[in-house]
């Protein structure tokens, strides 16, 4: 008999108020900011407004000319800048050294967990926000933020562009999806608040994103301008996660390139709209922290305004820093445009000083002017084993059983097991338990020629198996579920991506959602498949036939041995 669904969850318990971390008294902070501001030239102030990306994995003449030449306020690193923990720690140290005689830079990255991970070596890699949403645990969200912040600081980072606070209200959203905690405004608010508190308590500058919200749209703002079509009341409701963390001392916000006609009456993107940034964010929500734009080289902004003019418009609208990560000529264009705008009066000296004050206040408050521990000492200190355990706790608590026939989950023993998966760590975790399992690794995004070969090999594997486990990341693997089932083989599906898709796998006898393809999530999936752990997770989004909060509880097998130690 299939187990009964659990009742819908209650709201997570409230957290204590998030303290605004101020190393110095407020009056002394303001005094120090004014002292620093008075020592900056016009060129220095303009440089502070720029958050730039760099090429390569080491400081060279080009990087020095950009960072030191423009006296930039921050550097954001991406995957192409990072090979391992020691290398990126050295890079961060050298980047800071370029500005040793001036204002220390923000050293930032996007480290969200899930499918947005820039560095893996030397840091905890979290399963991602939607997995956290399935746990319903503010305690785990806090622990995740705190552990991640400590690991990132150990590598020399002082800022993280996370968490994502968008509410994923549109299942067809192409850019948020599992980066969101879910489609419940109270859930996103509570877990976002806990995660922010964890990061900031560990001393990491935290920039939440994407204000005023990107989760109800159906366009990718890298390529087209999303438009929020909801009413004014609905748009304001989607901002509650941002409002919740603003009230308690959030360091910074990143803007979204979305139009909000219900608030503004036009299709001007929020990033450059005074009504959104100055009127709504600064005045109505009383946010006095740092405002950073999303990438200005994204097409909806760059094509409509040009990157240089967009930077001027954004700062005039209320942004403090502009993110220009990719092309060298665009960074030069932005610097020249901002400098020219101040000299011509298009950008007032008072607005420039206000922006720089927000930047300096964040740097002073978070202790960026204090010399960090020597890199060798930081790296020689062993990482806390508890940090990796946090990721495993999240993954195990997130496992959600959406369907079972009562016979094939947990997997029966003594059967020929076949595994077809778009993430090889799932196959590895299953083979650790059943060395004789046949595993076929398939590409997550196969070409047409690859699909034909993939189907052939999947058919052969299924015919040699009594039960087939399919590990799915996206719709390309759905056909493999149907193929195996058409051969009369029971299929158990492990959904490692968005749960909306899992609902379409109607041919599967059992469907398990883990919301992530990171190794901690696939290890938890394998443990659940063999009855080593239960299935405590609950849907963080509503599906067409399953409600928010749904999940089938299957306890661990009494005779099962303890799950293997995390790898």
TrEMBL record:
GO molecular function: hydrolase activity, hydrolyzing O-glycosyl compounds
Highest taxon in the source lineage: Bacteria
Keyword NAD set for record: no
InterPro entries assigned to the protein according to its UniProt record, in alphabetical order: GH, Glyco_hydro_3_C_sf, Glyco_hydro_3_N, Glyco_hydro_3_N_sf, NagZ_Beta-hexosaminidase
Glycoside hydrolase family 3 N-terminal domain segment(s): 42-360
Keyword entries, A-Z: Glycosidase, Hydrolase
A GO biological-process term: carbohydrate metabolic process
This protein's record includes keyword Hydrolase: yes
Recorded family membership: Belongs to the glycosyl hydrolase 3 family.
Alphabetical list of NCBIfam families matching this protein: PRK05337.1
Protein name as it appears in the record: Beta-glucosidase
Species: Cystobacter ferrugineus
Source species taxonomy: Bacteria, Pseudomonadati, Myxococcota, Myxococcia, Myxococcales
